[in-house]
Amino acid sequence: MLGSDYGRAKLQPKAFSSLLSSCSVPATKYPYTYTSTPTASATASATPAPAKNCTGTPYTVGASDTCKSISQAKSIAIDRLINDNNLDYNCSLLTSGSKLCLGLKCALHDVVQNETCQSISKGKKFTSVQLTSWNPTIHTNCDNLDAMVGRSICVTPPGYLTYDATPLNITQIASMSSMFPGPYITGSIAASPPNITTKWYNTQTTFLPPITKTITANLTAASLIAARTAYCPFTSDDILDGRSEADLPDNCQALLEPYCYPDPNAPVPKSTVFPASCTPQRDATSTPSGSTPPSATASPSNTKPSPLQPSTIATCKQYYQVLSGDFCYSIAQKFSITLDQ
Question: Helices marked H in the chain — which ranges?
């Protein structure tokens, strides 16, 4: 950018050096070579080639012509004139007798110091977005207007000298027939109705059938998740009490993920025993809501309680009474056994 006059109009060498310094980057990492644009007094070889396949109006440059004078006389934005005819940014290669192609006309505005796209479009019938679309050299965030001071820009779409974007005023008035379906009587209302009644009758005899919509909840996804989270050590009570896997060591995340946040399409994980460091750290009084702390004393071996869980082994020597809110995982942890046991 700094190697051309066009780039230097946007960023000065001192500003670039200051930017590199603020980033602690040596200038040698971004070398550049600056070549000044030839002036109008250059040889004929520097004269820009005329635009090929001109679809606009051909124009021969006069002795006193400048890009600005042509722009004002022909209602063409300077940057569009330069771009359509391969001229340099400062229009210094414009020579008398050369051929130009003049594109679409538009209403012009000369940019002045400290203007913004908002100030130019204020009170007009166009927006800043439209302004930048009509003038491609203006940045979309309109931050380069200061570099365009003195240059003419389009304030109407190219091809139009006026622009009227007055929105359509559409008013819809509801009729009696659209407000009250069914037959009704037209005419004037009597000033003193002879009979006043509090009963009203619907004279409509034809009614549309009622619309019935049946919504079927998809329980498949919920059942898949429930089957795959059966062995997750975190319960809803843990979540409500503010305990989560984020409180555990980082190496626990990979262990818990298939049990607590499974893919519904993945196979159901097998029961497992998690390390103590990867389980919720509950205090002595922390129990599932609506339950009391389970008793640590097992039933005597010579006493068989009733009822028993189906498929209880006949050789069981120690029993436990299940309380509301108990989970297989919490019971297994309490007695230091596996979920399979």
Answer: 5-8, 13-22, 67-74, 78-84, 117-121, 128-134, 176-179, 220-228, 236-240, 253-260, 328-334
Return the SS3 of 60.
strand
List CB contacts of 194: < 8 A, sequence separation 6 or more: none
d(CA 19, CA 277): 50
> Does 67 have pLDDT greater than 70?
yes
Asked if residues 258 and 269 have their Cβ atoms less than 8 Å apart, the reply is yes
pLDDT per residue as tens digits for the range 272-311:
888 888 888 776 555 444 444 444 444 444 567 767 777 7
- Among residues 72, 95, 100, the alpha carbon closest in space to that of 84 is found at 100
Angle among Cα 302, 303, 305 to the nearest 5 degrees reads 150
| Other beta carbons within 10 Å of 69 | 11
Q: What DSSP state is assigned to residue 160?
A: B
pLDDT in tens, 178-197: 455 555 555 555 556 556 55
Separation CA 284–CA 196 (nearest Å): 77
